[in-house]
Amino acid sequence: MIVWPQTYLLPFRLIFFALFFLIVLRFLRVERTFTNCLLFSVVGVLTYGVWNSAVHENHWFVALVPAFFLAIEADDSCARWLSVLVAVMLNRNLFVFYGIVGQEVISRAVVFDLSLILALIYGAIWLLTLSYAWSIAPAVPALLQRRVAPHSRASA
After folding, report:
1. Is residue 21 one of the residues assigned to a domain?
2. Distance of alpha carbon 63 from alpha carbon 67, whole angstroms
3. CA 47/CA 123 separation, integer angstroms
4. How far apart are the C-alpha atoms of 43 and 63, rounded to whole Å?
5. Which of 2, 4, 31, 43 has the maximal Cβ count within 10 Å?
6. What's the rounded Cα separation, in Å, for the pair 33 and 40?
7. Is 7 a domain residue?
8. Residues whose CB falls within 8 Å of the CB of residue 124, separated by 6 or more in sequence, listed in order
9. pLDDT tens digits, residue range 139-153?
Protein backbone atom coordinates (compact mmCIF):
# COMPACT_ATOMS: atom_id res chain seq x y z
CA MET A 1 0.00 0.00 0.00
CA ILE A 2 1.37 3.38 -1.03
CA VAL A 3 1.08 6.17 1.53
CA TRP A 4 0.96 9.54 -0.19
CA PRO A 5 2.31 12.54 1.65
CA GLN A 6 -0.38 14.99 2.60
CA THR A 7 1.22 17.99 0.96
CA TYR A 8 -2.18 19.33 -0.06
CA LEU A 9 -2.81 20.02 3.64
CA LEU A 10 0.30 22.18 4.00
CA PRO A 11 -1.39 25.51 3.07
CA PHE A 12 -4.17 24.84 5.60
CA ARG A 13 -1.67 24.03 8.33
CA LEU A 14 0.29 27.18 7.53
CA ILE A 15 -2.93 29.20 7.80
CA PHE A 16 -3.67 27.55 11.15
CA PHE A 17 -0.20 28.29 12.54
CA ALA A 18 -0.33 31.89 11.30
CA LEU A 19 -3.75 32.45 12.89
CA PHE A 20 -2.69 30.77 16.12
CA PHE A 21 0.47 32.89 16.24
CA LEU A 22 -1.60 36.08 15.78
CA ILE A 23 -3.94 35.02 18.58
CA VAL A 24 -1.01 34.40 20.92
CA LEU A 25 0.45 37.80 20.02
CA ARG A 26 -2.89 39.46 20.72
CA PHE A 27 -3.13 37.66 24.06
CA LEU A 28 0.29 38.98 25.02
CA ARG A 29 -0.97 42.54 24.47
CA VAL A 30 -4.08 42.41 26.67
CA GLU A 31 -4.26 42.72 30.43
CA ARG A 32 -3.33 39.54 32.34
CA THR A 33 -6.56 38.44 33.96
CA PHE A 34 -8.08 35.03 34.52
CA THR A 35 -11.05 35.98 32.33
CA ASN A 36 -8.81 36.97 29.42
CA CYS A 37 -6.81 33.77 29.84
CA LEU A 38 -10.00 31.71 29.62
CA LEU A 39 -11.26 33.68 26.63
CA PHE A 40 -8.07 33.29 24.64
CA SER A 41 -7.91 29.61 25.61
CA VAL A 42 -11.33 29.11 24.05
CA VAL A 43 -10.29 31.09 20.96
CA GLY A 44 -7.11 29.04 20.64
CA VAL A 45 -8.88 25.70 20.86
CA LEU A 46 -11.59 26.85 18.45
CA THR A 47 -8.87 27.96 16.04
CA TYR A 48 -7.34 24.51 16.34
CA GLY A 49 -10.72 22.84 15.75
CA VAL A 50 -11.78 24.98 12.81
CA TRP A 51 -8.52 25.56 10.95
CA ASN A 52 -6.39 22.47 11.61
CA SER A 53 -6.73 19.16 9.81
CA ALA A 54 -7.50 15.76 11.34
CA VAL A 55 -9.44 17.20 14.28
CA HIS A 56 -11.77 14.68 15.84
CA GLU A 57 -15.14 15.48 17.40
CA ASN A 58 -13.90 14.81 20.91
CA HIS A 59 -11.40 17.68 20.57
CA TRP A 60 -14.30 20.12 20.88
CA PHE A 61 -14.67 19.10 24.53
CA VAL A 62 -11.36 20.81 25.30
CA ALA A 63 -12.93 24.15 24.29
CA LEU A 64 -16.04 23.47 26.35
CA VAL A 65 -14.30 23.37 29.74
CA PRO A 66 -12.71 26.86 29.61
CA ALA A 67 -15.85 28.22 27.93
CA PHE A 68 -17.97 27.17 30.91
CA PHE A 69 -15.42 28.58 33.34
CA LEU A 70 -15.47 31.80 31.32
CA ALA A 71 -19.27 31.97 31.59
CA ILE A 72 -18.99 31.54 35.36
CA GLU A 73 -16.10 33.99 35.80
CA ALA A 74 -17.18 36.81 33.48
CA ASP A 75 -20.27 38.84 34.18
CA ASP A 76 -20.90 39.25 30.50
CA SER A 77 -23.73 37.96 28.35
CA CYS A 78 -21.33 37.52 25.42
CA ALA A 79 -19.25 35.09 27.48
CA ARG A 80 -22.37 33.10 28.36
CA TRP A 81 -23.41 32.97 24.71
CA LEU A 82 -19.91 31.84 23.79
CA SER A 83 -20.15 28.89 26.15
CA VAL A 84 -23.58 28.00 24.76
CA LEU A 85 -22.26 28.12 21.18
CA VAL A 86 -19.29 25.89 22.04
CA ALA A 87 -21.64 23.40 23.74
CA VAL A 88 -23.92 23.41 20.68
CA MET A 89 -20.90 22.88 18.40
CA LEU A 90 -19.78 19.85 20.42
CA ASN A 91 -23.19 18.23 20.70
CA ARG A 92 -24.35 18.99 17.15
CA ASN A 93 -21.20 17.51 15.70
CA LEU A 94 -21.49 14.34 17.76
CA PHE A 95 -25.20 13.98 16.96
CA VAL A 96 -24.81 14.46 13.21
CA PHE A 97 -21.88 12.08 12.86
CA TYR A 98 -22.69 9.46 15.52
CA GLY A 99 -26.35 9.89 16.46
CA ILE A 100 -27.70 8.97 19.88
CA VAL A 101 -26.64 5.32 19.83
CA GLY A 102 -23.43 5.59 17.80
CA GLN A 103 -24.90 5.28 14.31
CA GLU A 104 -25.37 8.12 11.92
CA VAL A 105 -28.94 9.45 12.14
CA ILE A 106 -28.91 11.66 9.07
CA SER A 107 -27.07 10.78 5.91
CA ARG A 108 -24.30 13.34 5.54
CA ALA A 109 -24.89 13.58 1.80
CA VAL A 110 -28.38 15.07 1.74
CA VAL A 111 -28.03 17.85 -0.83
CA PHE A 112 -24.62 18.98 0.31
CA ASP A 113 -22.25 17.16 2.58
CA LEU A 114 -23.35 18.14 6.10
CA SER A 115 -19.75 18.34 7.22
CA LEU A 116 -19.26 21.22 4.77
CA ILE A 117 -22.30 23.05 6.14
CA LEU A 118 -21.15 22.47 9.71
CA ALA A 119 -17.67 23.73 8.80
CA LEU A 120 -19.17 26.96 7.46
CA ILE A 121 -21.27 27.42 10.61
CA TYR A 122 -18.27 26.70 12.83
CA GLY A 123 -16.21 29.18 10.83
CA ALA A 124 -18.84 31.86 11.49
CA ILE A 125 -18.86 31.01 15.21
CA TRP A 126 -15.06 31.20 15.20
CA LEU A 127 -15.24 34.67 13.63
CA LEU A 128 -17.71 35.81 16.29
CA THR A 129 -15.47 34.47 19.03
CA LEU A 130 -12.41 36.08 17.48
CA SER A 131 -14.14 39.45 17.18
CA TYR A 132 -15.20 39.21 20.84
CA ALA A 133 -11.60 38.51 21.87
CA TRP A 134 -10.28 41.32 19.69
CA SER A 135 -12.71 43.78 21.31
CA ILE A 136 -10.62 43.70 24.50
CA ALA A 137 -8.51 46.82 24.72
CA PRO A 138 -4.76 46.26 24.76
CA ALA A 139 -3.08 46.83 28.09
CA VAL A 140 -0.94 49.89 28.50
CA PRO A 141 2.66 48.90 29.24
CA ALA A 142 3.88 49.79 32.73
CA LEU A 143 6.63 52.00 31.31
CA LEU A 144 4.06 54.23 29.64
CA GLN A 145 1.91 54.62 32.73
CA ARG A 146 2.93 57.69 34.65
CA ARG A 147 1.39 58.63 37.90
CA VAL A 148 0.96 62.33 37.78
CA ALA A 149 -0.43 64.20 40.73
CA PRO A 150 -3.53 66.17 39.89
CA HIS A 151 -2.81 69.80 39.15
CA SER A 152 -3.67 71.98 42.04
CA ARG A 153 -4.06 75.66 41.67
CA ALA A 154 -2.04 77.64 44.10
CA SER A 155 -4.00 80.46 45.61
CA ALA A 156 -2.48 83.79 44.79
Report:
1. no
2. 6
3. 9
4. 8
5. 43
6. 11
7. no
8. none
9. 876 555 555 445 555
The neighbouring-strand residues paired with 113 are 109
pLDDT for res 45: 92
**Structure confidence by residue, pLDDT tens digits, 87-109:** 888 888 777 777 778 776 666 66
Domain hosting residue 96, numbered range: 34-134
pTM: 0.78
Residue 6: inside a domain: no
Number of folded domains that form the chain: 1
- Residue 89 CA to residue 127 CA, distance in Å, equals 14
How far is it, in rounded angstroms, from Cα 129 to Cα 85? 10
3-state secondary structure of 145: coil
Residue 44 is assigned to a structural domain of this protein: yes
